[in-house]
Amino acid sequence: MSKFFTQIVLFVLTAAFLFSCSSPNHEISGTEATGDASGTETAAIEKTTGGVTTPTEYVTETETQTKTETEAATLYDETCLSPVITDCKNTRPDKIVITGKCEPDAVIKITFNKETISAYPDHGYFVSSIALGNTKSATISIIATAEGKNDSKPVTKNIGYRSGCYVYNDDWHIFVSDFNYRGFLKYTINDLKGETKLNDSQLELLKEKTAYKTEYLKSDGRNAELIILLAPNPSSVYSDELKKQIKISETTKRDQVLEALAETDAVVIDLYDVFYKSRDGEFTPYLRTDSHWSEYGAYLALTELTKYISQKFPAAAPHSFEEYGFKLIEKDGGDIAYYLETDETKMREFAPFAFPTFEMPVKIKKYKGNCVSPDFDVLTGKLEYNTCRDELPSAYVIRDSYGCALTDLLAERFDKTYYQTMWQYQFDTSVIKSMNPDYVIYVLTERNLDVLLK
Fold first, then answer.
1. Cβ–Cβ < 8 Å for 115, 81
2. Count of Cβ atoms closer than 10 Å to residue 221 Cβ
3. What is the pLDDT of residues 211-242, one digit of tens each?
4. 10 Å Cβ neighbour count for 63?
5. 200-216 and 253-261 are packed helices; what angle lies between their axes, rounded to 10 degrees?
6. CB atoms near residue 283 (< 10 Å)
């Protein structure tokens, strides 16, 4: 019996050994499973070289997840280039403005205190602002993102509170929009907030002054008209970009003035609707790094003006858009860059400029060097032009700095043009008596409407 039992045990042990050796799925790789000091399980990652399987490295469960997440984020063949910060400075003790460059099709994401701000560049140039709040110092992270590309590697920058730092205080302070690379003068923001509205006595004075001017232009055998060519502030046309920063008033000074002038005989050409329709086009009515309208904006204004004038003077009908030959040209930044105290050669923009296919009788240097800003040394003083075309009307022009881009374009549609010294807004009857113009034209932006009370 004992012998028989011993044989049975030997048979079972032999069968078990043979079964384990013949298992096709089992390989011995040196270590099958181990545990680290934290109890996290690790597994051998094997590679096959020349038909021989050998262990190469050990990866913890946490590392495996990280690797998987990285692989999931790398979805495309192309990766965005990291953005380049061209300037980063405090414009207020607790406010920082950042300018930079990136790929043309990218969107910039700036992470600060666990919040992310998106900045939308124009032709690869971007600007953004950060309010520190109660934070004294922090590190921001900036990446570029684009459809069909992996996010760029982050760029980091240390920022902090700077006591006593005020870049161009008061009216010339700049409000920055993260949308479409744009800045706005503070005192145009005040208009938008309704802080510059006229009182009842001022509105009555406006109507009285306007009535006097229109009556004078019809007296003593004269038959001239008073035209007010009104450009809205850039902040009014792009007010939606500022709603997060300010409370916008339901009525503004511009609304008041338009309503008051409607009770007079002045011809008012309000450009708001025209500018709003073109604000997001290839050619925009305003410059991005300067507080003035672009040459395309001046063209839109002139088109509306000459549509009206050509009713009496058909030869003054507007040229077609195609005849102006607009092109986008890369230029150094304008007064917005200046008021931010940043380098205009780094805060650049692609601005629309006219290259007319028709003869321009007036040739004048309108811009400062390679900059988008008007050349005030050339354009500020009194200017007179005679194109010797009797079929066209004459004009006496009273202007603010928005008249700069119009200088040669407007004169081309008139026979004689007299530009009063810029920012001198008096209604000069001596000029009217000597010139006897067909039109007295105010070229004004919304921020300067108060001058109509003079």
1. no
2. 6
3. 999 999 999 999 999 999 999 999 999 999 99
4. 13
5. 40
6. 20
Longest dimension (CA), the chain: 148
How far, in Å, CA of 444 to CA of 426, rounded? 13
Q: How far is CA 187 from CA 75, 126, 170, in A?
A: 47, 23, 8
The side-by-side arrangement of strands in the sheet containing 52-60 is 34-35, 41-49, 52-60
- Dist. CA 237–CA 278, nearest whole Å: 10
Residue-range domain boundaries for the chain = 84-166, 189-453
pTM of the model as a whole: 0.82
Cα dihedral 157→163→164→168 (10° resolution): 30
Q: What CATH number matches the domain at 84-166, 1.10.10.10, 2.60.40.10, 3.90.1300.10, 3.20.20.140?
A: 2.60.40.10
Q: What are the structure tokens assigned to 344, written together?
A: 């205009």
Q: pLDDT digit string (tens) for 111-133?
A: 999 899 999 999 999 999 999 99
